[in-house]
Each structure stands twice: as C-alpha cells, then as structure tokens.
C-alpha cells in the first residue's frame, strides 16, 4: 500500500469510527427534553398570556422555552442596573415599572427540605419565601422577599396568595399572576 493511499484509508477509517461512535453515544446517552419543560410556552404565554415575569431560579430555561420576558432575580444574568434599581427603588416599584405580570417560583407544596432551603435561608442570594403550613409535612408559599444581590439589602416583598397561583408544575415551577393593584 502506498503511503498516500494508506494515509487516506487511515483517515477515512478514523472518520468513520468517529461518526459511528458519535451516533451510538448520542442515541445511548442523549437526554431528551422533559415534556413538562416543553409545555412552558403552551402554558406561560399561550394559555396564561403572561408577558413579563420575575423568576427566582431557572431563568435561562424559562427564557429558552418561551417568548415570555424573564427578569432574573438571582442576578446571574448580568443586569447590574436592575440590581442597583432593586436597592434604590424596591421590588414593588420595579414590578410596576417593567409591567411584570407573573412570578415564577418553586412548585407547590414544599416538603421539609424545600421549606428549609427556600423559607429559612436567602436562596441564590436573592429571595426568601414566606411559607405557611398547608398539610402535615407540607408548606405553601404566600410571599417572597427579594434581596439586591449586589448589597444583600432587602428590596421588599411581593404577595403570592394561593388564589393567584395559575399553574403548578410538580418538580419544576409554580406560577403566580401578579395583579397591578397589589404591586
């Protein structure tokens, strides 16, 4: 076998092996998108007609799977001006200024672990939920206190009454409609 022919066959064989390996590993190990996540668009914007929401966690996932404008409270999306405005204006004023019509929070009800992580501590340096007992061993969120991540100061709270919870997706998110009167 000539040098050029052997090199060509070796390169082609290597490419074929890489393609076979990729196809095999993709089929074997690829994780399909959870159908619940795919329902974000159908529920958040199409059914509930939400346009702008505050999100306590997973802002990228919500933004990717919907056309809803997502304002991340955890400060990880890099909006430093929003964080400064939290300190100076407060969450109520920003909700009105940005016409926020929804809040994305943890799925309801919370178990003891969720209650300890979300209601006793400031979660992601940005929110602490106020929880009330609902059934033995379960708690529901009825208010969220928001903190400015830059300074750690409280920016106020938003009421999240049960009657305003419009969607609850177990293991993912709960959604409350924020009414203009209570902002």
Low-confidence stretches: none
Order of helices and strands: HHEHEHHEHEEEEE
Shape: elongated
Amino- and carboxy-terminal Cα gap:
79 Å
| Main structural class | alpha/beta
Query: Helical percent range?
Result: 25-40%
Radius of gyration: 23 Å
Widest beta sheet: strand line-up: 2-1-3-8-7
Which whole number gives the mean pLDDT?
87
Beta strands, count = 8
Provide a count of the helices: 6
| Major sheet size, sense and barrel closure | 5 strands, mixed
Strand content: 25-35%
Can you walk me through this structure?
The protein has 183 residues and is of the alpha/beta class. Helix content is 39%, strand content 26%. The chain has helices spanning 3-29, 35-47, 59-65, 80-88, 91-97, 112-119; strands spanning 52-55, 69-72, 102-105, 127-135, 138-147, 154-159, 165-169, 173-177. The strands form two sheets. The protein has a five-stranded mixed beta sheet, covered by helices on one side. Strands 4-5-6 form a three-stranded antiparallel beta sheet. Strand 7 and strand 8 (173-177) form a beta hairpin. The N and C termini lie far apart (79 Å).
């Amino acid at each position: 076998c000539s040098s050029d022919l052997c090199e060509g066959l070796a390169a082609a064989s290597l490419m074929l092996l890489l393609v076979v390996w990729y196809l095999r590993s993709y089929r074997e190990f690829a994780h399909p998108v959870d159908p619940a996540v795919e329902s974000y668009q159908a529920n958040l914007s199409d059914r509930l007609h939400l346009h702008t929401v505050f999100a306590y966690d997973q802002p990228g996932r919500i933004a990717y799977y919907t056309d809803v404008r997502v304002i991340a409270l955890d400060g990880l999306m890099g909006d430093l001006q929003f964080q400064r405005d939290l300190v100076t204006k407060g969450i109520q004023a920003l909700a009105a200024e940005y016409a926020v019509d929804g809040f994305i929070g943890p799925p309801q009800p919370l178990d003891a672990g969720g209650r300890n992580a979300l209601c006793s501590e400031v979660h992601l340096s940005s929110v602490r939920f106020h929880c009330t007992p609902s059934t033995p061993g379960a708690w529901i969120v009825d208010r969220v206190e928001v903190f400015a991540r830059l300074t750690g100061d409280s920016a106020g709270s938003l009421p999240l009454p049960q009657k305003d919870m419009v969607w609850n997706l177990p293991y993912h998110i709960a959604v409350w409609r924020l009414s203009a009167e209570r902002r």
